[in-house]
Design brief:
This protein is an alpha+beta fold. Helices cover about 30% and strands about 20% of the residues. The strands form 6 sheets. It has a 5-stranded mixed β-sheet with strand order 3-23-22-19-18. A 5-stranded mixed β-sheet has the order 13-5-4-20-21. A hairpin with a 2-residue loop joins strand 8 and strand 9. Helix 3 crosses helix 11.
């Protein structure tokens, strides 16, 4: 029998228990399963999952590690449950947010209305390293820039979901969402007969539909462009290409002729209409970006400028997911859509502003400080858990490059029961839903749940020791 050996931390929103330590209605089935499960059996199932993930090649590697070996992302057997009512609100908020972000991207490359209106400072847009001046006045099909967005959410101790950051360039992790579901259905098929869990396996079909809709041509040829097998997300690139039934290509598999992109095949060149690129802007074309890049395609930028190929996501989308632009997204929603934001932002101090910088310096021990271009949990300070040496180091960084940082309060990420060495215990987690923009905005229910496996840790990134869970959105809360 598995006992819940740890109660949720006081003052933290727990997704299994409410503030009175009663099981939430949407999780009654989950609690019943845990109580009647054998701990040794769960441990055996976890070992089986590790073997299967290793066999399938579901691994990642951490850049900079000496061994350079691929590692398994730890998979937790206990699913995270989201009620139908919560998902309905999340879905509406995500759709609203991504629509506003796409409107913003179109605006800053065409009309500049939001800058003229004084909502956002021109310097924060035009001086942003991710801004691409060559994208100005370029007409894109359906005026779409971010076809695939990954929006990171956390649940605070007030029970509300907050957007932590927007990922609009090459958001990763959806393959783990899909494989986590497959693994749970393989290991515990009986659970899916007991709970009305919304399906996610149709994501590749929705992604394929979105990519085809990115082109105005009938029956466009779509490919996935990968940096290659040494990339940390290569498994995902290959997985998605296989699931969509399209070609996985590297830069050397493509060439440009007369401003059109072609793929080398055994029966001769085939024109490519849409590229789902998993390569950063600067490496896409050595003639227009990094001249030393061996990952991209010479001449690709010219073909793109001439409208003969579509890139998903578009070049220059990174300016909208910069952490210094993040505080303005609620204003974007009001400005472009005339609506109040459904999802909340985390309060943010922009260190480029002298008053904000001073506040962050004065309260560093209580705040989280992030690089505006940072990702993967790197370049970040969690003040309450930092040593005196780390605090002093970040003070010097902030004073040297204040524009490179933002400060935020240390939020109380919600917890969820997780199977760890000492049994079943609460661990902090976040959620990354994937939002697809084509002829319409759509998504599968849920997303990738990342969980911090260390007790008390708030860092969920796999590169920092985090794991993943299956995410169950209930189709009916009366279960």
């Amino acid at each position: 029998m598995v006992m819940l050996i740890q109660t949720p931390p006081e003052g933290i929103y727990d997704e299994l228990f409410d503030q009175d330590n009663r099981v939430r209605p949407s999780c009654r089935m989950l609690e019943d399963w845990l109580i009647h499960s054998d701990e040794d059996l769960l441990a055996e199932k976890r070992r089986e999952a590790d073997v299967l993930f290793q066999r399938l090649g579901i691994t990642f590697n951490v850049y900079g590690e000496d061994q350079g070996a691929d590692r398994l992302i730890p998979f937790d057997l206990i699913p995270r449950v989201i009620s139908a009512a919560d998902w309905q609100r999340l879905q509406s908020g995500l759709r609203q947010r991504v629509q506003a972000l796409n409107r913003f991207l179109f605006d800053i490359y065409h009309d500049f209305d939001i800058i003229r209106a004084g909502v956002i400072n021109a310097e924060q847009v035009f001086a942003n390293p991710q801004y691409q001046p060559g994208m100005q006045n370029l007409k894109l099909p359906r005026n779409l820039y971010s076809h695939i967005a990954g929006i990171d959410l956390i649940r605070h101790n007030d029970g509300d979901f907050y957007v932590l950051e927007d990922n609009l360039r090459c958001p990763s992790g959806v393959s783990y969402m899909l494989e986590n579901r497959r693994m749970m259905m393989r290991l515990f098929p009986e659970l899916f007969a007991q709970a009305p869990v919304a399906p996610v396996e149709h994501y590749p079909a929705l992604l394929g539909e979105t990519l085809r809709a990115a082109s105005l041509k009938p029956n466009p040829t779509v490919v996935v462009l990968t940096p290659g097998r040494f990339n940390s997300a290569y498994f995902e690139h290959a997985f998605l290409a296989r699931q969509m039934g399209i070609e996985l290509v590297e830069g050397a598999d493509l060439f440009v002729s007369q401003n059109k992109v072609f793929m080398k095949t055994t029966i001769g060149p085939q024109q490519v209409d849409v590229i789902y690129r998993r390569i950063d802007d600067d490496f896409l074309d050595p003639l227009a970006g990094n001249p030393d890049s061996m990952l991209g395609v010479p001449g690709l930028y010219a073909a793109y400028r001439n409208g003969h190929v579509v890139l998903a996501n578009a070049m220059g989308t990174g300016v909208a997911d910069d952490k210094s632009i993040y505080p303005y997204v609620p204003d974007m929603i009001r400005f472009y859509l005339g609506e109040e934001p459904i999802l909340k932002n985390v309060p943010t101090w922009q260190c480029r502003k002298p008053k904000d910088l001073q506040y962050v310096l004065d309260n560093l021990q209580d705040l989280v400080v992030k690089e505006t271009q940072g990702a993967g949990g790197y370049g970040m300070l969690i003040g309450p858990k930092a040593s005196k040496k780390e605090l002093n180091h970040f003070r010097s960084l902030l004073k040297a490059r204040p524009d490179n940082y933002i400060g935020q309060p240390t939020l109380s990420l919600s917890t969820c029961p997780t199977f760890v060495e000492e049994g079943v215990a609460p661990r902090h987690l976040d959620l990354r839903p994937f939002v697809l923009s084509g002829k319409k905005v759509q998504m599968v229910p849920g997303g990738l749940t990342r969980v911090a496996l260390k007790a008390g840790s708030l860092v969920v990134n796999s590169s920092q020791g985090g794991g993943t869970k299956d995410t169950w959105v209930l189709e009916d809360d009366q279960c």
